[in-house]
Specification:
By secondary structure, this protein is mostly beta strands. It contains one helix and 33 strands. Helices cover 4% and strands 49% of the residues. The protein binds beta-D-fructofuranose. It is an enzyme of class 3 (hydrolase).
Length: 469
């Protein structure tokens, strides 16, 4: 379809659907959600001229995956976002089945997008091109076209370029599937973003001491944190174990040292980034003040996503809150970006036996829980969080099967922070040692009720609305 037709269709969809979407009681008060249609991965997260830019995988035409567009928001404070001109529409032959995920860099002062042009053929086969687009004076993106064809030795599943600069050179990590159907991450370099030279595979299934580790690795991201290099990636095809890899697809990281010249990345074990029901395809950026910030998709590409009730209001999925990453003992610690504290209203504090705790409204609120003792908490009749002294369990009813399902963390609990926003809760364990991000669809207004006979310390702040302008 021509770009004009695609934009006309997208506009009709937004104009026709925005009232219904905005009226959804489950629409977040302060998280990013699509105006209409389906949102998935965060893309092109970058700070440029004092503004953060966040693009997003977007199907404006319906609550289904398909030929993705790039939506575009910007913000000076990570709280108040505004809509920017649509980033990319899948109009060209080299991106006929979607402008898939990618990243943004500032090249000679110009915001530049590097993304995957996804192409499917009638016989079921596919290919992928890595493409460039540069911002013009109207805040729109002019496409340069493909700068990298499918590398030899891989299937058509090669995508999600993340580009950064190091010692005056551009580097790219790419998610890939080799011809033996093993997931890999490729490293490439370039002097000008236009011609790319391969430095080989730096990680993947069967590499660096890993056994079989998935048939495809999506959305890689590589960055320096403290004295290490961190590779984030999303392996697909890891079998579920009793206390990890519980979601359909995983999202996690390796800590190591990237040897740029040799193209080697010796690394440690894989750790999941988030243990909740919905988290995938995160992307990071370095802020002007030196923080490594991460935003994830609060969704998972599995069949269950289509049972979420917001579909009746014509929209699906949200982003996570922005988080700051640090490395402690070779593990990533995630904390909500400090800017979020500005959303806090009046603080209430309480201390006593858990079951005597006041019932608080957590429709959009932050709750801090201090305890090492067992307790359980009901979130709006739709989700329970229970700590038994060894396991923290988050339980809800699966919307497709009606069966109970749970996600777990094991350790020594001291503290929890819950960030709630109408249909989502992000749980930060022990000040960011682990996180559980999940969507839920509670009774509204949502009440938090504690049970248990042990002492607990609680703080509560309502969080202000932050409408996208
Ligand atoms: C991850 C992903 C990416 C791809 C995009 C398509 O969720 O599958 O690998 O680029 O979504 O929307």
């Amino acid at each position: 379809m021509s770009e004009v037709s695609l934009l006309k269709q997208a506009l009709r969809s937004v104009v026709a659907g925005q009232v219904n979407a905005a009226a959804d009681p489950y629409r977040p008060a302060w998280h990013l959600a699509p105006p209409v249609g389906l949102l998935n991965d965060p893309n092109g997260f970058v700070q440029h001229n004092g503004r953060y830019h966040l693009f997003y995988q977007w199907n404006p035409l319906g609550c289904a995956h398909g030929a993705k567009f790039w939506g575009h928001w910007s913000s000076v404070d990570l709280l108040h976002w505004r809509h920017e001109p649509l980033g990319l529409a899948p109009a060209e032959e080299y991106e006929s089945h979607g402008c898939y995920s990618g990243s943004a860099v500032v090249d000679n002062g110009q915001l530049t997008l590097i993304y995957t042009g996804n192409v499917k053929y009638p016989d079921g086969s596919r290919t992928a091109f890595q493409c460039l687009a540069r911002e013009n004076e109207r805040g729109e993106f002019d496409k340069t076209g493909p700068v990298l064809d499918l590398p030899v030795g891989y299937t058509g599943h090669v995508r999600d370029p993340k580009v950064w600069q190091h010692n005056g050179h551009w580097y790219m990590v790419l998610g890939a599937q080799d011809l033996n159907l093993q997931g890999k991450v490729l490293l490439l370099h370039s002097a000008d973003l236009l011609s790319w030279v391969s430095l080989g595979e730096i990680a993947g299934s069967g590499l660096n001491g890993l056994g079989q580790f998935g048939y495809m690795w999506e959305c890689p991201d590589l960055f320096r944190l403290s004295d290490s290099d961190v590779l984030i990636c999303c392996p697909q095809g890891l079998p579920a174990e009793s206390d990890r890899y519980q979601n359909t697809f995983q999202s996690g990281y390796f800590v190591g040292q990237l040897e740029y010249d040799a193209g080697h990345f010796p690394h440690g074990d894989f750790h999941e980034l988030d243990l909740g029901f919905e988290f995938y395809a995160p992307q990071t950026t370095l802020s002007d003040d030196g923080r490594r910030l991460l935003i994830g998709w609060m969704g998972i590409p599995d069949g269950d996503e289509f049972y979420q009730p917001t579909i009746e209001h014509g929209w699906l999925h949200t982003m996570t809150c922005p988080r700051e990453l640090t490395l402690e003992n070779r593990k990533i610690i995630q904390r909500p970006a400090h800017e979020l504290q500005r959303l806090r209203g009046e603080e209430q504090a309480w201390q006593g036996i858990a079951q005597d705790a006041p019932v608080w409204d957590i429709t959009h609120a932050e709750v801090a829980i201090g305890t090492e003792q067992p307790f359980s908490a009901d979130l709006g009749g739709n989700m329970t969080l229970a700590w038994d002294g060894e396991w923290l369990r988050l339980t809800r009813k699966n919307r497709r099967s009606g069966e109970q399902e749970q996600r777990v963390w094991r350790g020594a609990l001291r503290h929890l922070t819950l960030l709630c926003d109408r249909s989502s809760v992000e749980i930060f364990i022990n000040d960011g040692e682990a996180v559980m991000s999940s969507r839920y669809f509670p009774d509204l207004p949502t009440q938090l009720t504690f049970s248990g006979k042990q002492p607990i310390t609680l703080h509560h702040w309502p969080l202000a609305d932050c409408v996208i302008e």
